[in-house]
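Q: Here's a chain of 186 amino acids. Please give me its 3D structure as tokens.
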Amino acid sequence: MLAPSRDLSATQPSWRKNPAATAALVIALAGAAVIAGAWFFELVLKLRPCPLCLEQRVPYYIGIPLALVVALAAWRKAPRAAVVGGLIALAALMLWGAYLGAFHAGVEWKLWPGPAECSGAAELGPAGGLLDRLKTIVVVRCDEAAWRFLGLSLAGYNALISVALAAIALWGARAAKDYGSSSVSQ
């Protein structure tokens, strides 16, 4: 007597059934956690962000909603090209974030100069009214790390997290290509 055939897809974990949606959702959740962490350091611990710190948030501000749209598209069985294209765009955004984080970490380590508005010698302008300007000027330096853990600053951790999220996006795009081509024959 032959054993009944089993549908193996029913026993797979849900993340294996739709890897593109899983990758996009992981990127959205991790990105939201990174932004929440940045806001925690800024608003609760009172570590004011420098201009480079604020610029490093832009890929997340773009990537989080894009990742949610890609996850929804993958769950709704949107065309594979749209889902894969969205994941590749997410990977590019996260690589841009990794570049910004690595650049900022290099500025903090004095490997290269940072932007003039937050690195190097302070420009205070003419001497007239200097004391009044000093009362209102708040310059957060880009070339000094406000916080380090295990030798890495927040910019260094952002670079590492961004590379990991780019890898997840590329994994999702690759898995979506494989998954989509195997499900066509069903």
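Q: Can you summarize the key feature?
A: The longest helix spans residues 154-183.
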